[in-house]
Amino acid sequence: MDSISMLLGGLGDALTLTNLLWVLIGCLLGTAVGVMPGLGSSMAVALLLPVTFALDPTAAFIMFSGIYFGGLFGDSTMAILMNTPGQASAIASTFEGHTMARSGRAPQALATAAIGAFVGGMAASVLVVFFAPWLAAFSTSFGPAEFFALAVFAFFATSSVLADSAVKGLLALLLGIGISVIGIDGVSGAPRFTAGSPLLFDGISLVTVTVGMLALAEVIYVACRERFDPTRSPMKASGRPWLNRAELKEAAPAWARGTIIGLPFGVVPAGGSELPTFLAFGLERRLDSRRRNPRFGKGAIRGLAAPEAAGNATTGMAMGALLALGLPVSATAAMMLAAFRQYGLQPGPLLFDRSADLVWTLLASFFLAMIVLLVINLPFAQLWAKLLLIPKPYLYAGIAMFCGLGIYASSPSVADLLILLVIGLIGFLMRLADYPLAPLIIGMVLGPLAETNLRDALMSSDGNPLALLDGPIVWLIYALLLGAIALTILSAVRRSAAARRAARETSADVSV
């Protein structure tokens, strides 16, 4: 009851005209920055941090939270329409979301993303208010062995379902892990896989790989496809900007499952919302493969609904972890932690006692931000979809230009632009050879997490590899992994048997 009364008091403060204005400004800025490839909410917070010193702390953090949530909405918009995610958290949304857009269902895809983000964000906000202490205690049970097991689970469980060929999926995964270890080793200081070039000493950033693989490779691929097959019909931007009853029935379970997957990751420092979005997507694809008529690869609404809900659920819980524990579990949360310290505030349990008015007003603003973002994005889904009506030469030339601008803005170096071009060409060749891009991105995202925690676990146990199997959570994760592998093998055997039966029946019909 104390939480409810405090939340109602914070809601009264958040509903003032001034604070509502800052919620709106933050949501608009976050959405605008999110649509730019290579940029994100963390960069927006970093750029605006000096500006907000003239603001009241409550107004500043209300705006920052709007930017945080709005950035995810903007990322998803361009991921769906242009196959160009603004941040890694929107990568999983490109797989089925962009397919929906290409089949003329862009408004429905954007509506699915907006509602999923709303559902996940609202659920997280409720849990932050009522159950943050319990979830914070759960996060303390994760150590290096648990994080390494989680990364291994994500490697194999998602790579096996994100590719039609397990071999191609694993090869793409290994390529992504290989890219992630390029540069100076943080422990030994030795250069790894740099070929002696100083340009690679800092490694290859995830932003460069994401933009190159998903955006620039798509531009090159579409340009070649249009050159050799100009009769292909263009993407359509028509359609209703809402979901009908059948689509809501299809998406609702995925929203719920994605939210459940995303919530725990908000208080676990696993690097942000990339991992839960991939896990949510992999689960939906696995469930879809058991259906009579699988939809994945054709624009499955569940393949978009689950990652969107998971990403926003993680983001909402990350804000709770920042306030309750002072634990930044993402880049944007780290920037907000710096902002708190600039104002002389230290997030953690004492913040609720010393600055209760700020905390509860900020928590109340989370709910308002979700509503404002839904109001902003849902009605304008069809307007955003009109971007697809731009003639393809101008559209893809603009995407290529923004890819270069986004990379140069995040790292003003000509070398990064050259690396972007090379990564784009590699992505183009992978598309031609029918190699999946998703496992490569997974390896790139989770490779550093796995390596760091593997080292920490071994160093803390004097090199004893059995430390990687210590703890009930580790055993549970590996048991789930073995179960996922067994289910994958079983489903492959069943598909093979069904294909053989169909072939025999066809040959029997022909002989008759």
Automatic annotation (TrEMBL):
InterPro entries in UniProt: DUF112_TM
Statement: the UniProt record of this protein carries the keyword Transmembrane helix: yes
Transmembrane residue ranges: 20-39, 45-73, 109-135, 147-163, 170-191, 203-224, 321-340, 360-381, 393-409, 415-432, 437-454, 474-493
Q: Which residues form the DUF112 domain?
A: 20-442
* A Pfam short name: TctA
Q: Which UniProt keywords apply?
A: Membrane, Transmembrane, Transmembrane helix
Name the domain of life this protein comes from: Bacteria
Protein name per UniProt? Tripartite tricarboxylate transporter permease
Organism field: Brachybacterium kimchii
